[in-house]
């Protein structure tokens, strides 16, 4: 098991989807949330940026609105009943007026950059006069977001060391600036203090590879604005996976996954920034009390991503590498509720959760029109995979070679298949029926003739044992309609199924037995008789129409890697596989990949055997 088996990854394909689908109105809204209105006291020559956000909002979605801030309200917020824990003026404004100048005097290469909410613009001149660089934003924020994420905008600036912190930590920032300089000297892309606590008391994933108030990044590695826009766009549409697959337990919600509520900054860092920065190498500072399964996977991932990554342990006490405490309802400031040193009980499982999970057993379903492009790889994969089953559907069995590996696995039921019509769905259903009747398989993986395995079967079976949900990449019709009208029109006239509940899905999917039997018991193929390319929509749409919404019941994750042509969205074919492509496949978290025709050299990388890629040459 690796990091990408546990946590979803915000991929480059998802960024591409955003760029292709975002509307002018949506882009304008994102500009309002993340755009800068004006900059005061710009200091472009300073190599160190200390990045902070200053705003005044209740940080949780659903909390009541606070009044428009004024100097008087901020100074008397507790007396007025708007804040109970801290006086916002003393806790957040005064440090920028008094401590920030002292810090910049001690570190002349550093500038404190304040991303200031629009409704607090009355502080801009005063903050700039004492030496801060002030970016007045176009938004006053909604709740915690978007303001909590403004601090990440400097990630795009090449030649800068960006230290992210909370305003109430300015008096502790000297060591953080030294860590940023050490990071640069070591040739690494980031330093961080993770939160090495796996679960909260209510059994949400609380592990964080980046604590939002204590890390540094080499500028220029990420297009921060594009990444923030794309991630936010997906979040507002409910297209992000909020679940992690906790080892030996299964899917649990990731804390902070709701826009625009508290913790969304660290959710962004975990899914979007972390996988990219890990490839640049990290300097990781871990508190000595750490007892975490996910920390182990984290360190393995960053070390694999960049062998120059380094790990440093430091003693507990006043460190910040600890779990956040539960937030009271009256919290009103983005920086207000960062971790304090507390006792961390080990998570306990209920009797139900302590039960042994059912071991996964997978049937491979080959839907082909040709011989397998790489039968040797598949034969090796199956021979080394205890319990795996193989079922094949090819309309012209007589054209198979007598010694064909596929021949011995052909099913009896046959459909006369043709591209882009319902016959492909009927052939898939035939494969599912045969596999469901043949043995006690728990999962069914649909594959084409140009697919290859890229991870060992044991890793797939182990992952499915922990999280038995089906896995497919799904998009609702309502979203596709916004950016690809002609494609959406295919599903507008399905007999008995309203287009608003239709879904598109990638055909190369993995179904668990429950979903497979559910789909088989709701045969609606006649309704799709005149739908173009129904295999791209039938399965997810049938689930939704029959009362099992796919985005609520399955893991919306690709299981088969495909790289698509930006011009026409068709999958790219690889006859020669470079080291870069092999690395992309390995990093994707997928268990299979396509399209690799006969003669492709994908086999030399031995990905399905987990061979060291360094042993090969590009």
From TrEMBL:
Bilayer disposition of the protein: Single-pass type II membrane protein
Name of a matching Pfam family: Branch
InterPro entries per the UniProt record, alphabetical: BC10-like (IPR044174), Glyco_trans_14 (IPR003406)
KW Nucleotide-binding (keyword) present: no
Region of interest: Disordered: 327-353
Domain of life: Bacteria
Keyword Glycosyltransferase: yes
Keyword set, alphabetical order: Glycoprotein, Glycosyltransferase, Membrane, Transferase
Subcellular locations according to the entry: Membrane
PANTHER family: CORE-2/I-BRANCHING BETA-1,6-N-ACETYLGLUCOSAMINYLTRANSFERASE FAMILY PROTEIN-RELATED, OS06G0661900 PROTEIN
Protein name per the record: Uncharacterized protein
Lineage: Bacteria, Pseudomonadati, Verrucomicrobiota, Verrucomicrobiia, Verrucomicrobiales
């Amino acid at each position: 098991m690796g990091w990408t088996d546990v946590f979803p990854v915000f991929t480059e394909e998802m960024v591409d989807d955003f760029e292709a689908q975002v509307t002018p109105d949506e882009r304008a809204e994102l500009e309002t949330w993340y755009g800068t209105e004006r900059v005061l006291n710009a200091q472009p020559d300073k190599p160190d940026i200390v990045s902070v956000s200053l705003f005044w909002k209740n940080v949780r979605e659903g909390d009541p609105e606070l009044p428009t801030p004024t100097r008087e309200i901020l100074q008397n917020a507790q007396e007025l009943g708007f804040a109970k824990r801290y006086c916002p003026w003393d806790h957040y404004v005064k440090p920028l007026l008094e401590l920030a100048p002292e810090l910049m005097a001690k570190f002349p290469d550093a500038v404190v950059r304040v991303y200031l909410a629009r409704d607090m613009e009355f502080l801009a001149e005063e903050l700039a006069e004492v030496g801060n660089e002030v970016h007045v934003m176009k938004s006053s924020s909604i709740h915690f977001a978007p303001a909590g994420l403004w601090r990440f905008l400097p990630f795009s600036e090449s030649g800068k060391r960006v230290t992210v912190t909370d305003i109430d930590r300015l008096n502790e920032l000297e060591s953080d600036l030294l860590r940023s300089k050490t990071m640069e000297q070591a040739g690494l892309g980031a330093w961080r203090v993770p939160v090495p606590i796996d679960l909260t008391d209510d059994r949400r994933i609380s592990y964080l590879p980046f604590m939002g108030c204590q890390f540094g990044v080499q500028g220029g590695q990420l297009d921060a604005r594009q990444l923030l826009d794309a991630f936010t766009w997906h979040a507002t549409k409910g297209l992000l996976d909020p679940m992690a697959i906790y080892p030996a337990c299964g899917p649990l919600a990731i804390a902070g996954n709701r826009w625009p509520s508290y913790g969304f900054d660290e959710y962004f860092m975990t899914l979007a920034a972390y996988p990219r920065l890990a490839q640049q190498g990290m300097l990781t500072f871990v508190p000595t009390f750490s007892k975490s399964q996910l920390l182990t996977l984290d360190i393995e991932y960053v070390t694999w991503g960049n062998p120059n990554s380094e790990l440093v342990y430091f003693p507990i006490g006043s460190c910040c590498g600890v779990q956040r405490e539960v937030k009271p309802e009256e919290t009103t400031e983005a920086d207000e509720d960062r971790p304090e040193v507390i006792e961390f009980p080990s998570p306990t499982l209920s009797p139900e959760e302590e039960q042994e999970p059912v071991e996964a057993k997978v049937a491979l379903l080959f839907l082909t029109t040709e011989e397998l492009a790489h039968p040797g790889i598949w034969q090796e994969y199956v021979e080394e995979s205890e319990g795996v089953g193989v079922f094949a559907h090819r309309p012209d069995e007589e054209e198979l070679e007598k010694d064909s590996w596929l021949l011995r696995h052909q099913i009896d039921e046959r459909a006369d298949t043709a591209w882009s019509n319902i016959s492909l769905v009927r052939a898939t259903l035939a494969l599912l029926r045969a596999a469901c009747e043949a043995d006690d398989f728990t999962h069914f993986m649909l594959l084409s003739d140009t697919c290859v395995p890229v991870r060992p079967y044991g890793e797939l079976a182990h992952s499915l044992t922990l999280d038995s949900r089906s896995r497919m990449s799904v998009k609702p019709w309502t979203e596709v309609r916004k950016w690809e009208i002609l494609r959406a029109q295919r599903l507008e006239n399905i007999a008995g199924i309203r287009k608003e509940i239709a879904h598109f899905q990638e055909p190369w999917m993995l179904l668990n037995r429950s979903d497979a039997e559910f789909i088989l018991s709701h045969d609606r193929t006649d309704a799709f008789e005149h739908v173009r390319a129904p295999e791209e929509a039938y399965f997810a749409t049938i689930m939704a129409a029959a009362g099992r919404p796919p985005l609520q019941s399955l893991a919306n994750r690709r299981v088969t890697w495909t790289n698509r042509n930006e011009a026409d969205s068709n999958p790219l074919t690889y006859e020669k596989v470079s080291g870069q492509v092999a690395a992309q496949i390995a990093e994707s978290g997928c268990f299979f990949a396509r399209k690799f025709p006969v003669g492709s050299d994908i086999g030399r990388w031995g990905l399905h055997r987990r061979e060291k890629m360094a042993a090969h040459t590009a």
